[in-house]
Amino acid sequence: MNKQLYSAQLQWDADGNPYASQFQDIYFSKQGGLAETEAVFLANNNLPQRWLNHDFTQMPFTICETGFGTGLNFLTTCHHFLNQPLPAQSVLHFISIEKFPLSQADLSKALAKWAILTPYADTLLNQYPALVYGWHRRQLAQGRIVLTLGLGDVNELLANLYADRQRGLVDAWYLDGFAPAKNPEMWQTSLFEQMRRLSRSQATFSTFTAAGLVRRGLTAVGFHVEKVAGFAEKREMLRGFLPDKTMPDKPVAHTTSLPAWFHYPDYQADEKHAVIIGAGLAGTATAQALSRRGWRCTLLEAQPAIALGGSGNRQGVFYPLLSASWEDIPTQFYLSAYQFAQRHLQALNQIDMPIFTACGVLQLATTTALQIRFAKILQALQLPVEIVQAVSAQQASALAGISLEHNALYFPQAGWVATAQVSQYQLNQARQQAEIVLQCNVTVAHLQKTAESWQVLDAQGHCLAHAPVVIFTNAQGFKSFPYAQDLPLQAVRGQVSYAPANRNSQALKMALCYEGFITPAWEHQQVIGASYDLTTTTPEIRTADNQANIEKLQAINADLARTFPPIISARSAVRCSSLDHLPLIGALPDYAQFMKDYADLQHGRPSEQYAPPHYHQGLYVNLAHGSRGLLSAPFGAELLASLINHEPLPLPQQVLSALTPQRFWVRQLKRGK
C-alpha cells in the first residue's frame, strides 16, 4: 500500500493567486476568494445563525470540507466563528481532506493576501503538519477551534472516519476540491454515500458547482438539493440538506466499518465531571484534554505526589516507532501520535524552564539486520525528511558531535523531554482551564455504581470522590479491578542510570538510541538506559543493571562509555505494557456480557448480525503506554476526550479498533477460547 503524498504543483499569476497545475484550475475566485467563501459556504449553510442556535453543551458543531487547498475556507470560518457572541466553551470542529497539500511555503504565500486572517493563518502555519498520509489533529484559539486535517484520498479517508450510526457526525459540508470535470476521482458515488453515512439529521451542504452528477448523486442518497445563484460570474451553484437520518438498508459500500463488537457507547454524562485514577503522564494529559472541554476533574493518586512511577524519569527520548508497512497499525498510530505530541510538548514549554528540546534523535543501525530493516522502512513509508531520513556513519557523527561507527535513522524534530516535569506542566495547564482537584496518598479499592454516578471507594468503604465518568490511567494498578479481567497487561521493570556529564560526554548534541539510549547533558547530568525486565518488579537499584546500561553504550562508543565512573546513581520504575505493545484507550465493556454476546465469533457470523457491546457506562481507560508514554499518552488523552464528548476521532477506524480494551477478548473468542 503506497501512501506517499505529493504536494500541490502551483503556478502564480501577477496578483499572487495560486493555480493548480495538476487540475488546471483555480483555488478561489479572482473576484475575491474570501468573499467567495462567505457566499458559497458560510451563507449557504446558514452558519452564523446556526452557531447562535446550536446547543454547544451537548456537542460541538462539526463542518467537513472535501478540499483543504489553501486553507482559506477554514480560516474564514475560524474568523467568523470566533467573532460570534458564543459561550466560551463553544467548540467548532473542522474536518478537512486534501490529497495534494500545499507546502508550508506555498501556503504562507497564498494566505498573505488577507490581512484580516493573519492571526489565524500564523497559528495554522506554526502547526502545519509534515506531509504524512492520514489524520492530523490541531488546536487553535485555546482549543475553541479543532482542525482534523486528513491528507490523502477523500473517498478513502471518509470511508475510514468513525461516526455513530444513529447520531452521525457532520452538521455542515463544504464540497470543494476543484470542478467535477477536472477532478473526477473525488466526485464519485462513494463520496455522496459517505456524506449520508456521516451526516447528522438536518445536516446541510453547499458547493460552488451545479454539475448534474453532483445534484443527481446527492439526491440519490437522500439529500434535498436546490440550485441557487452562483458567486460573481458563476451562474448557479448547489446547496441543500439531509431531511432525516434514517438508517440505510445495508452498510455503505467501501466503508471500513468498525465491527459491532468494537462500536463505542452512545453515552453522554449529565455532568462534565470525571474522576481520574492515576496522576502520571496519562492521567494529567487526560485531565488537560478534558479541562479544555470544560470538564471538572478529580485526580486520585496512590503515591505521595504525581509522576512518581514510570512517568518520573529525569529525561526521556522522544521519537516515533516505525515499521516497513503502512498496513502496520502501530506505525499508523505512532506517526499520528508523534506529530500531535510534538505540538503538545512545544505548547508546554516555558521560557524559563523548557521541558522539550528538539535536538534530534539518531537511531543507530548497530547490526546488519537493523540496516536492512531501516532501509525497508524508508522505502516502504516514503516519509518526508522532516520526519526521518537516512544518514551515514560520517553524517551521524557530525550530527551527534561524537564519533559513531554506524549508519542511522535521523529524526530531526525528535529530541529529549524532562519527563518528570511533563505531568506537572499538564496539571498546571488543566488548572488554568477548569476546576481540578488532586488527592495524593489515596488508594482506590473499588467502585460502586449509583443512579447518577460512580462512587470511588477506599478499602474502608469511604467515598473518595464521585462522578458520572471514571477513567483508569493507573497503569499496572488497573489489574486489581474486576474490569481488567482477561486483559493481558504486563509489568515491565526498567532502570535508567544517571551520570555526571564530563568533558567528552558534553560534546553529545542529540539523543542516541541503540539497544539502549543516552541523552545529551542537561544540568550537568546525562541519562543512560535502560533495562527491560519482565521477571521482577523490585524497586531496589541493581548494580548489574547500571553495568548493563554502560555496556550497551560501550558497544556503540567505547571511548564515551569509559569516561563515566563505575558507580552512578539510578532510578527504577515499573511500566505497564500490553501484549501487543499498543495502549488501551477507550470505553470498558462488561466482560461477562461481552463473552456471552459474542460467544460464537469463531463461526464467522457477519458483524451486522450482532448488537453493539454492553458497556460499564461512564468507565474508560487510557493506559498501557509502556516505554512510549511521552509519545502516546497526550494523543491518547485527546482521543479519549474526543470519544467521551462525541467529537470527530482523529484516527481511522481500523486503528481505533486496535486500541479498544476488548480487542483481546475478540481474539480469544475467534480462537474458540
Structural account:
- Its cofactor is FAD.
- With 673 residues, the protein is of the alpha/beta class.
- It folds into three domains: 32-246, Rossmann fold (3-Layer(aba) Sandwich), CATH 3.40.50; 261-309 and 420-488 and 580-670, 3-Layer(bba) Sandwich (FAD/NAD(P)-binding domain), CATH 3.50.50.60; 489-502 and 515-578, D-Amino Acid Oxidase, subunit A, domain 2 (D-Amino Acid Oxidase, Chain A, domain 2), CATH 3.30.9.
- 29% of the residues lie in helices and 23% in strands.
- It has 19 helices and 31 strands.
- The strands form six sheets. It has an eight-stranded mixed sheet, with helices on both faces.
- β27 (517-518) and β28 form a beta hairpin.
- α9 (281-291) runs parallel beside α13 (419-433) and α9 (281-291) runs parallel beside α17 (629-644).
- It is globular.
Please list the strands of the largest sheet in the order they lie side by side: 6-7-5-4-8-9-11-10
Mind telling me the CATH class of the largest domain?
Alpha Beta
Oligomer: single chain
CATH topology name of the largest domain: Rossmann fold
The termini sit apart by 33 Å
Secondary-structure-based class equals: alpha/beta
CATH architecture of the largest domain: 3-Layer(aba) Sandwich
Tell me the helix content. Answer: 25-40%
Number of domains: 3
Radius of gyration: 26 Å
- Characterize the largest beta sheet: strand count, sense, and whether it forms a barrel: 8 strands, mixed
What percentage of amino acids are in beta strands?
15-25%
